[in-house]
Design brief:
Layout: H1 2-57, H2 59-66, E1 68-73, E2 81-82, E3 88-89, H3 91-103, E4 106-111, H4 117-122, E5 128-134, H5 137-142, E6 144-145, E7 150-152, E8 154-159, E9 176-180, H6 184-192, E10 195-199, H7 202-211, E11 216-220, H8 221-227, E12 237-242, E13 246-252, H9 258-271, H10 274-281
Length: 291
């Protein structure tokens, strides 16, 4: 009887050990499978994050994914203005449409407060600033800018019947000016120590003179050529003094890969003549910079 008990006990112990061994093996297999799944999931997450980061870093991919290039502008003939049908036209507007088409996307124009252009750009409410923008040091430090495509200058606008009295900068001290807020015109007025009132757009500055609420304005020469003098809506106004010389460029977000794409587009459209053809439509061909 004792011998039989001993044998039975030994057998039960052996079976118990075998059972324990199988349980450990099962747990090891489960743990290994779980680890492998975790590694796969983490790798997939990392790859997705990398793809998303890459997409976010590329303005070109961002624009093409949403299918629209959003252009920030103001009412600024002959560069950007609305025709009788309410469509944005002008040298800049037409070139922006052609650039968007070259990217395979549509264009959307958003009228902005010029003084807030950098904030609008960084906040992604717009994708670029394309509106006869002077390439100042401030602009170039805050944006990624294209190559210059037009020459320009800031000029003084006064009523034609008093223009002879204001032919040098010293004579301007007694005048009150209207200038676009955040513009190169405002910078010139500040540098000269002139008395001025900031307004929303250069077109508003002209309205200030016409209404008699300002004596003069400082605006872009390209706009002055299109909107001031005989045959324009401001036939009683004229421009006198040129205050500086400057260049226009298009602004994108810092580090944007759209800048290089636009420079390529400018070079190609200048070479095939389409840029100059567009410029002639709006009378700015003399100001176009060779690409």
């Amino acid at each position: 009887m004792k011998k039989m008990f001993t044998t039975t006990a030994a057998l039960m112990m052996a079976l118990s050990l075998i059972g324990c061994g199988n349980s450990a093996s099962s747990e090891d297999t489960t743990a290994t499978a779980s680890t492998e799944e975790t590694v796969v999931e983490e790798t997939a997450t990392e790859e997705t994050s990398t793809e998303e980061a890459s997409s976010e870093e590329s303005d070109l991919a961002y624009v093409q994914e949403k299918g629209t290039l959003v252009v920030g502008l103001t009412d600024f003939a002959p560069m950007d203005y609305k025709d009788e049908d309410g469509e944005w036209v002008g040298f800049d507007a037409d070139m922006a449409k052609a650039f968007a088409e070259s990217l395979g996307v549509s264009v959307e124009f958003v009228e902005i407060d010029w003084d807030n252009k950098i904030m609008e750009l960084d906040g992604k409410t717009i994708d670029c600033v394309w509106n006869g923008m002077t390439l100042t040091d401030e602009v170039k430090s805050a944006m990624d800018c294209s190559n210059a495509y037009c020459n320009n200058a800031q000029v003084v606008i006064v009523p034609a019947d008093v223009a002879d009295n204001y032919q040098d900068t010293e004579s301007l001290a007694e005048l009150t000016f209207a200038v676009e807020a955040g513009s190169a015109g405002e910078a010139e007025a500040t540098a000269l120590g002139l008395n001025f009132t900031p307004v929303k757009a250069q077109s508003d500055a002209l309205m200030e003179i016409a209404a008699g609420t300002s004596d003069a304005a400082i605006i872009d020469s390209l706009m002055a050529a299109a909107m001031v003098g005989e045959g324009t809506g401001y036939a009683d106004l004229t421009y006198t003094i040129g205050l500086n010389s400057e260049e226009y460029g298009v602004g994108f977000r810092k580090g944007s890969d759209l800048t290089a794409k636009l420079n390529e587009f400018f070079a190609a459209s200048y070479a095939d003549g389409t840029m100059m053809e567009c410029a002639k439509t709006y009378g700015v061909q003399a100001a176009v910079v060779e690409q």
